[in-house]
Amino acid sequence: QQPVQSPQAVILREGEDAVINCSSSKALYSVHWYRQKHGEAPVFLMILLKGGEQKGHEKISASFNEKKQQSSLYLTASQLSYSGTYFCGTERGGSNYKLTFGKGTLLTVNP
Amino acid sequence: NAGVTQTPKFQVLKTGQSMTLQCAQDMNHEYMSWYRQDPGMGLRLIHYSVGAGITDQGEVPNGYNVSRSTTEDFPLRLLSAAPSQTSVYFCASTPRSNSPLHFGNGTRLTVT
After folding, report:
1. Tens digit of each residue's pLDDT (9 = 90 or more) over A15-38
2. Are A48 and A62 contacting, i.e. CB atoms less than 8 angstroms apart?
3. Which range (A24-28, A86-90, B48-52) has the least confidence?
4. Which letter, b or e, does each residue of B49-59 get, where b requires 16 or more Cβ atoms within 10 Å of its Cβ?
5. pLDDT tens-digit series, residues A35-66
6. CB contacts < 8 A (A, B)
7. Residues of B in Cβ contact (< 8 Å) with A42
8. Would an 8 Å CB–CB cutoff place A7 in contact with chain B?
């Protein structure tokens, strides 16, 4: 079952902040975040693990609320290079690995 | 290291034809998976594998077969192509659960 991302799209001016949300109806073990530029493959940004451990990008932060099965990605002082589609991927844990992605959030940063 | 290599980059098929999308990784990753990407739908999991000889279905497996005879290779077979299978296909690998996915550059498939 796909996690739900919001907003679907957001337009910023350079230097502005943005928050992208990801929620699931199922209990989660971890949440991944990826960014995809047009015509390219998705690129890893961050993983948030149950228990609070966070791995990833220096200039982008995120949170993971395990009780609410929600994660938020915080993009501060946005740069033109932040433009792209952001995907969250959720993993429910267990012995079989399966990462399910949301439909994506299109972020456009203008000068 | 080449990472994850997908071939071909582009392919056009006629309805009813069969073909195999190739995926190979040289990082000795245990986990491999296939996703399809359609506008507005995000990345949807087709099949995945947790090791050589072990495969399982994802969200949208119908019309596709996979096998994993070696750690390195994870081919995706379209048995009888349909226009609904027009999409961009990504192969990905990771060494373990809770680690980043490494994506290939994708295969753009058009079925007419």
Report:
1. 999 999 999 988 888 899 999 999
2. yes
3. A24-28
4. bbebeebeebb
5. 999 999 999 999 888 766 565 666 788 988 88
6. 62
7. 43, 90, 101, 103
8. no
pLDDT of A76: 87
In sequence order, what DSSP letters do the residues of chain A get, joined into one string?
Answer: -PPEEE-SEEEEETT--EEEEEE-SS--SEEEEEEE-TTS--EEEEEEETTS-EEE-SSEEEEEETTTTEEEEEE-S--GGG-EEEEEEEE--SSS--EEE---EEEEEE-
Show residues of chain A in contact with B99, CB under 8 Å: 47
Residue A1 is predicted with a pLDDT of 78
Q: What are the structure tokens assigned to B2, written together?
A: 């080449």
pLDDT of A84 higher than 60: yes
DSSP B73: B
Of B45, B98, B105, which has the smallest distance from its Cβ to A41's Cβ?
A: B105
